[in-house]
Structure formats: C-alpha cells, structure tokens
Amino acid sequence: MPDNPLCDAVTARTQELIALTQDLIRIPTLNPPGDNYLEICEFIAARLAPRGFDTKPMRAHGAPGDSDVYPRWNLVARREGRAAGACVHFNSHIDVVEVGKGWTVDPFGGLLRDGRVYGRGSCDMKGGLAASIIAAEVFVDLHPNFVGAVEISATADEETGGYGGVAYLAEQGIFAPGRVDHVIIPEPLNKDRICLGHRGVWWAEVETHGRVGHGAMPFLGDSAVRHMGAVLAEMEARFFPALAEKRTAMPVVPAGARQSTLNINSIHGGQDELPPDFTGFPAPVVPDSCRMIIDRRFLIEEDLDTVKVEFTQMMEKVKAQRTGFRYDIRDMHQVQPTMTAQDAPVVGAVTRAVENVLGAGPEYVVSPGTYDQKHIDRIGKLKNCIAYGPGILDLAHQPDEWVGVQDMVQSAQVMALSLAELLGGQG
Question: Which pTM was predicted?
Fold first, then answer.
C-alpha cells in the first residue's frame, strides 16, 4: 500500500465506496428501454452538491430513444478550484444491459460477498462511477485550494451507442478543448491497464431480393434465401480469410481482435415469424426477401470508405455469378477508430499513479469494441482521453456480474493521485 495521504483517505472510505456502489446498483437503469435515468442522476447530484459541486441535469431531447416515458437524462457535476486552471473530467455511463438468465443472486441487490459486489452493472460500470466519485471527494477534501476544476458526468445510453448521452453532451460543448482538458472514462478494462481507444465499426443491413412463387413449384419463383446462401458461401471461402490477413499495430485485447472482423448479427428470410399462440403451418411460399445484419469491426489503418467498397465488391462478384441476383446495402451505424497517443498528458499521469499504487507500470491496450471515447474524440474534438477503471471486462453483461472491492479501492487511489498531478496538488 503506497504511503500517501490521498491513498490512505481512499482506503479509510472503503465501506463508503462499497455502500455507494450498492446504492447505484439498486437503481435499475436498464437500457433498453432507459429506466430510472433521472432517479440515478438526482441521487448522484444529491451526493455531490454538499461538497461544492455545481450539478446540472441535461436531457437529450430528440436523441434516439428519448421520449416523455423514457427521457434521456444526463448529469454534469463540476467543482471549481480556487483559481482557473485545467479541468479533469470523469465520465461514466449509468445504463446497464438486460439481466438475462443464469443469475444465482439478485441482479439489483448489490450483494457483498467475499470481497465482491454483485449486480447488473457492478462491473460495467457502476463500480467505476463509484470509484471516481470517491476519488474526487477525497481529492477535494484534502486539497480544497486546488487550481482548476474537477468534473463528473453520469451519462445515458452508452450500451446503445451513447447518442442520448456523451454524443449529446459533446454536441452541447461539454467536452470542448479548453473547457475540459483531461478525460478519464472508468470502464472495466482492469486496474493495471490503460485503454487508449478502440477499433472502428460499420453496421449495415444487407438484403437479397427474389420473386414469390409456390413452394411446390419453386422453379417458378426466385429464392432470396438461396441468393443469400451464395453470399454466405463467398464470405466463408474468401472474404473472412481476407479480413484475417488485415493486422493492426493497435494493442487490441484480446489478441484475436488485432485483425479485421465481421460478425453476422442476424439473418431473416421469407415470411415473418409466426406469433407464439399460432398453432397452424406456414404457407408454402418461395421467399422474395432475405435480410442480414452485419457488424464489421475495422482497424485504425483502414479507411471506412474502403471497408464499404470491399464488401460491395464481394457482393458484385456474387451477382456476376448468379442469374437474377439483386441486393441492397443500407448503412445502420458507423464509428471511426480512435487511439490516444501514449505520450498524452492524461496517459502519463495515470501511468505514474498506477506505478505508485500497484508497484508496476500499466499495460496499454485498445478495446475491440467501441465506447464513449468515440464521441469525445470525433464530436468534442478532444484527444486527451482514456479509459481506466476497476473491473474485469470479461464479466461485463454476464450473469452474476461483480466488481472486486480491492480493485475499486486501488482504482480510486489511482484516480485521486492522477487528479493531484494534473491539477497541481494543493495549487
């Protein structure tokens, strides 16, 4: 354990850190649909206001999913120091994914057992949110005359793209360089890792077309499913192997993601699914449509336009080989890859804090999937951003999700020490 007043103060508040994590878990902020966003923002605001934080709730009117029934609420809390200076911003998403099956504990109970706090969102990422709050409180208490500002945001919808959360805040100028200087996102990338960024993503719907016919005379129709089958065969034979040859210098974890990948998210062809209470048989019809959702992850060395062209060229190759082959490709969602430089100021400060707390330097990694850094970079135009927080990434979205108490304590210590360096300690 490092001999440092900030670290000692965090350790002394271990029980408070546990209780705060439990309280956050017990507010079920499921997304979709977007439950209890305002409730959790009000809870966090009520905690931070007594320490001098100016708290501002912000609803993302018009964002995807926003409605009067499920409003997309966010909170930005800011504590000014005694004089103007740099701002360190901790950003955590408040939404959690569906519970799913296989739980042996109450997913919203916040059970503490054997040094772990269990619950949906404990790892991803209410443990990180709690750690950042404790770190900020400790720093403000011990260094009330600091120079600059400490900011904490609790944001919506990261699990569904972040458009009602960080993207909206970035559009409002919250992450504008000069207003904010350093951003730490406490995602669960392990306490001994600093995540510099993520791969890019392109989601699209691919549809093959055919002609309706009687199932007893399929030769009078044209099966869109068979056309999609030819697409799948071409993907297996040549497209997937070609993607595997594309390699990156990005330190993506796990190592298998250091290549380009494509996931077939879903396929549906023919008649719509029959309702569960229907007991009859489907009609004998040749399918005239087959739809496939693709999830293409690409590397910082790749260009998004080229990624799309490569897929289209593959479709054109199939078209040249099949009579009557017709298709459409519709963009659904796209994110450019991003990676903060390893010599960026926030990386250096957190690196030295990790060395102090853990006795060894961190591993620098890149996430295989995207998170809210994309909006801070692309919309906010702020490059000095990383992900660092407690929790084991493999536990995210799993049944019996948990976060380790010691991991949270040590991550909070790292955050507090980083604040001291980036804001100049006592000022």
Answer: 0.90
